[in-house]
Amino acid sequence: MFETTQHDFGTVARGAKVEYRFRLQNIYRETVHIAAVRSSCGCTTPIVTKRTLRSLETGEIIARYNTRNFLGRRGATITVIFDQPYYAEVQLYVTGYIRSDIVVHPESLNLGTVELGKPAQAEVTIDYAGRPDWQILEVKSPVPYLQPSWEELRREGGRITYRLRVTLGSGAPVGYWEVPLQVVVNDRRRQFPVLVQATVRAQVVVSPSPLFVGVVQPGQKATKRLVVRGPKPFRVLKVECSEPGFSFQVDDKPKTLHLITVTFQSDQVGKHSGTIRIHTDLGKNSVPEVPAYARVNP
Fold it and tell me: What does pTM read for this prediction?
């Protein structure tokens, strides 16, 4: 069910927000329930995003590293306890090294809630105590829509302060996301991450997302509804899905809230997953995408 069961945080700064999301999917026909999670060390706090997973539904176990109260090499075993459809345990492993000589404040580059296509900025200060020649050489962004910049604010012997700023550009995905920037420095540990957080809100919001239509037998139909909201009256021009078997019923009249009926029917046994695209008359930035899936059992 888990994509991976172990993660190394690497070298991280004190006070920085550091977490990893262990993703899992219920690959079985029966509903799965997570009864509890526990950690072997206070350096890591486990969080369950969704305790009940129906067939094909996904969830996450978030492992949050406690960089404020712990230093040095730290690791933990997270035990995930299932009680449905039967009792089982899965162990997840995290490790990392928390530096005491680098402090990040605040804990992350939090861009907040941003309208799709609008710019935004956030900044943190990075304090270092140690070598007088210490410096930030580079800040790497893994995605093109985040542009980092940095400047030195103070250098007094071995006490050095930098300001790190990130600017949100075009092309950012809709929804909540976290992206780590890698700060490259000139000491033996070489680099450490600073997390960027944002919630990018589209003009058109669709729920639920993702959409689980249901479990059916060959030839049977399953029906669900999508709720589509906009900032002003708009028309739904077309609804399409990348996976065969999904059909849609829409009202083409302009209004701020649309109810789209989604019907799934197929003779092919197995998992069916695709992406629903909803085209509107609000422009190219208002074509929301919704993951959709269903299962056909023999």
Answer: 0.78
